[in-house]
Amino acid sequence: MKVLVFxxxxxxxxxxxxxxxxxxxxxSLKLLPLAPAYVAGLLxxxxxxxxxxxxxxxxxxxxxxxxxxxxIILVDYPAAGGTRALGLLAEQVAGIETVEQNTFxxxxxxxxxxxGQVAGGETGMLQLVEPEGLLTPEVRALLxxxxxxxx
Length: 151
What we know:
Residues 1-140 form the CheW-like domain. The chain is mainly β. It has one domain: CATH 2.40.50.180. Helix content is 7%, strand content 46%. The longest helix has 7 residues, at 137-143.
């Protein structure tokens, strides 16, 4: 399986490459008042607002640091009866790695539904991030208002 590898602090995480729609350089974001601290803001993507969450804060690490290789990873997120773009602000995106599916094991982590299986290897331990588990229903409703249908 191919995964896009990034860091939160010193720890390595990965997203299945099939879940990644695009990878963009870090950009300025419009802050969202009253949103949880891990909601970094809105990205203006060709005139469309895309909510962006800070994976570091979501994982309980200190707030994001902007590095040369910090990226916004766009995923198609299931919301409002379809899919919507969601940005994931990830520190130090390292690139794409191939990890054998049979090397993954249950992490035993509870309380963080976005954290998936773990694999060990020559380059260290890597934990999968499961995009579907990133947002609570309340935050999903805040970030993904139903879109008006043109008449």
